[in-house]
Amino acid sequence: MIDPKLIRTDPDSLRAAQRARGESEGLVDELITADEARRGAIARFEALRAQQKDMGRQVARASAESRPGLLAQAKDLAETVKAAEQETSQAEARFTELLMTLPNPVFDDVPQGGEDDFHVLQTVGTPRDFAAEGFEARDHLELGELLGAIDMDRGAKVSGSRFYFLTGVGALLELALTQYAVSRAVEWGFNPMIVPSLVKPSAMDGTGFLGQSAQDVYYLPADDLYLVGTSEVALAAYHSDEILDAEKLPLRYMGYSPCFRREAGSYGKDTRGIFRVHWFDKVEMFVYCRPEDSEAEHAKILDFEKSFIESLGIPFQVLEVASGDLGMSAARKYDCYGWVPSQQRYREITSTSNCTQFQARRLNIRARYEDGVGPVATLNGTLCAMTRMIIMILENNQNPDGSVTVPEPLRPFLGREVLTPSAG
RNA sequence: GGAGGCGUCGCCUAGUUAGGUCUAUGGCGCCCGCCUGCUAAGCGGGUUGAGGGCUUCAACCCUCUCGUGGGUUCAAAUCCCACCGCCUCCGCCA
């Protein structure tokens, strides 16, 4: 069930939003036509149905003489009702189909353009000058191999390209990062959740991952299940078909799960190491809130991300992503890009999206407000994507001998201050 | 995987064996009122939810809702089919 209020609100701003994304404005007109058809069909059907019910009562009470005549009438009516019912369900299906293809309207002040038109909002920290320190920075894979932390060769042997094993201190590092991330999230009031990474099509579609990004998703046809690319999917669908208590908003969840990505469009890109892999583990933040609070909640999530990255001593930039690169569900998106010394540039480590009411409408998540029932807003944000964060930590904290200094906050969880190359 | 049982309006529950004011029973809980110095008890009333219409609000009207989706029928909580979920037992397994 889709909340039909969506397209009655303001067709003009929907058209503008479509323009901003470089998407078809005609879709909006089609939607409006489909909605009118749908409403008309429903009204006709409901009226007929009322008639039919009334007639049913008459038949039940009818005397033996009047019964046959009434029955004949009722029979005719039943056919009309059936036809109207079919028309209604077709009109509904058409409307839903169109609505599911409509991306979330982008906020007006989002930078226009595509992948390269992001705005840099902030730069935090200063990249180390390795030349001045007298040595050349190793990349994360070289360091990982020296430390006995990353094994790509056997990853490829066992599972194929873009798979890895984290070994020894590598495994310990991920576990420590996980513990640290979870402890911070809990401290900030997020309810920790370990969530399924296989979900039904309704969950995948509801979160907006079966649109343009469908080719990036693993699908298990034998079971009609999808492997999630982020725990956002399970966390969003968690409250699907529910009416939440507005008093309890915002609801803040932290999800931990493996994430699977086919990386279909990225052949030959970032093939070295664990930067771009088919599977990684991630601690994710997810928030349900009142629509009018979504921008404030978004800012909070971004602050949490910044605070987490900064606490690990990684120089980074905060970007606001441009309209054409937002994906289907986001009305606004901020990415944090961490410094990668071996590449001499900033690369994505976190991403937070304000999906406003988009996912809530598709997943039928509402709340009971003072003035009635309506959709909530949903937001998500990366707290710690393990592989990317491991890269950042290894490269930014490396020493000339190939050892890596463990960032202060991780030490209690890792039980050591420095990772040293293994003798063998 | 095999066998059996069960899904009713917050919770429990009647109704399903002969389909028809079921326009869903009763209890608990909750809400309002009465009573009371206060509380409890007692008494009276209300209470499934969603969508839409109308509307200042309220009232009122219509549709849908008995796990979900189909089917049979003039008419389905009730009959038929499929699916989903839960429980018990067996097998297998972490």
Short description:
The chain has 424 residues and is of the alpha+beta class. Helix content is 42%, strand content 22%.
Overview of the structural elements:
The protein contains 14 helices and 18 strands. By secondary structure, it is of the alpha+beta class. Helix 2 crosses helix 3 (26-61) and helix 6 (140-146) crosses helix 13 (386-396). It folds into two domains: 5-100, Serine-tRNA synthetase, tRNA binding domain (Helix Hairpins, Orthogonal Bundle), CATH 1.10.287.40; 119-419, 2-Layer Sandwich (BirA Bifunctional Protein, domain 2). It starts with a helix and ends in a 5-residue tail after the last strand. A hairpin with a 2-residue loop joins strand 14 (365-369) and strand 15 (372-375). The model has no long low-confidence stretch (mean pLDDT 89). The protein is 42% helix and 22% strand. The strands form five sheets. Strands 1-11-12-13-16-10-9-4 form an eight-stranded mixed β-sheet. A three-stranded antiparallel β-sheet has the order 5-7-6. The protein is elongated, with a radius of gyration of 27 Å. The protein binds one RNA strand of 94 nucleotides through helix 3 and helix 4.
Descriptive keywords:
single chain; 424 residues; Helix Hairpins; BirA Bifunctional Protein, domain 2; 2 domains; three-stranded antiparallel beta sheet; 22% strand; RNA-binding
CATH homologous superfamily of the largest domain?
Bira Bifunctional Protein, Domain 2
Cα Rg: 27 Å
Rounded average pLDDT: 89
The third-level CATH topology of the largest domain is BirA Bifunctional Protein, domain 2
What is the number of independent domains?
A: 2
Distance between the termini: 61 Å
Helix content class: 40-55%
